[in-house]
Amino acid sequence: MRTKLVQIFVLRRCIRKASEIYLHTSSYKYLQFHLQNNLLLTPVTLSHRLTSLTQILKMQNAVHNKDQWSISASSYAQGHQQLSNAPVETLFAQMDRVKPFSTATAILDVGCGPGVTLSRLIEKYGEQVPLDARLIALDFSAGMIEQVQKMQKEKQVQNPIWSRVEGKVGDAQVLDGIDDASISHITGTMVYNLVEDGRRALEAAYRVLRPEGVVGMTLGKSAEWMDMMAEAAHHVRRDSAPTYQFPKGYGTLDGIKSEFEIVGFSAEFVESMEISIDVSDPKPFVDTFIRGKNPGAMFFVGDYSEAELDAFVDFLLGLIGERCKGESKRLRGEAIVAVGKKLG
Fold first, then answer.
1. What is the pTM for the complete model shown?
2. Integer Cα distance of 265 and 260 in angstroms
3. CA 56, CA 20: separation in Å to the nearest integer?
4. Closest alpha carbon to 335 in 194, 170, 174
5. Under CATH, which number does the domain 66-342 receive?
6. H-helix or E-strand containing 309?
7. 297 and 230 in contact (C-beta within 8 Å)?
């Protein structure tokens, strides 16, 4: 009887914590079912399910830690140099097709990071953007906004459009300080699938967009480099190593189309496409993503000793060398590109 009461107490706390961050995983549902039906779990099963949820909570905490993003801000932009540009180029082209940037009144880059997406947008479409259109870069990490402002100072001498960029620290799920129906275009690259509540962030985008305004996003679906890091983590920590899972809510084409419809957008373009990282020289990837304390990597190595981190990196480099042979040395992945138009 005492064992059962202890389990009920543990399960209630576990489920309460999980529900706070909108988890709908198999382990969450499994534990919830047993609690609701007053069923007793074996110690091994209970341990396994709690470990699974603990790993997911750890992943969520790493991704949602704005201080951790600030720490990695200076190295984050360098890591993008190895990433393929195709998803972002497709995103811009589809947004411009649905609502040309030449008609923009205000462009908001949500979760702007150090300004990589905004920089590419200005480079390709800057001359088409009207002179009176606002350019807003928003991120919940103050460190990332500092990087945007640093880039602004460097680039505005050669390109005056940069003097119009407004850097704002803010939450993508709230967009506080952005007026209703004031934005014509919103971009969000690898943002809406990583915030705590994607629906809430999309509703915030709907609020600030003008009628027939567009929101464009890229979302991660799979990544070979994350799978390799999971292998490296298992090599170092064995069975106690966490297993990375891409957030599921915004990870399928049908799921995103459904979210658009529920919030009030027409799905103008929703397609998956390949992404890749150039690892012909893997050192930049290691230095910027892993040793640069990117939150995605910190999920695996955040509490590592120096010796463990060295072992992790050595094993990962071995995997890259083993699997990326020949002329094309790239790690593959899959991303979703989605563009929605506000109805009404």
1. 0.78
2. 5
3. 13
4. 194
5. 3.40.50.150
6. helix 306-323
7. no
CB of 327 closer than 8 Å to CB of 206: no
For tokens 């393929």, name the residue.
Answer: 84
Please tell me the distance from the alpha carbon of residue 133 to that of residue 243, in angstroms, as a whole number: 44
The predicted-structure confidence for 305-330, as pLDDT tens digits, reads as follows: 999 999 999 999 999 999 888 777 89
Q: Are 243 and 53 in contact (CB under 8 A)?
A: no
Strands 134-139 vs 330-342: parallel, antiparallel or unpaired: unpaired
Contact assessment for residue 129 and residue 104, using Cβ atoms and an 8 Å cutoff: yes
Please, where in the chain does CATH 3.40.50.150 lie? 66-342
DSSP 178-244: --TT-EEEEEEET-TTTSS-HHHHHHHHHHHEEEEEEEEEEEEEEEHHHHHHHHHHHHHHGGGS---
Positive or negative torsion for Cα 154, 158, 160, 165: negative
Beta strands, E only, the chain: 106-110, 134-139, 165-169, 183-189, 209-223, 265-278, 330-342
Report the C-alpha dihedral over residues 12, 18, 24, 28, rounded to 10 degrees: -40
pLDDT of 52-81, one tens digit each?
455 555 555 555 555 544 444 455 555 455
Q: Backbone phi, then psi, for 114, in 5-degree steps?
A: -80, 5
Strand order in the sheet with 106-110: 165-169, 134-139, 106-110, 183-189, 209-223, 330-342, 265-278
Q: Which residues touch 241 (CB under 8 Å, ≥6 apart)?
A: 230, 233, 234, 300
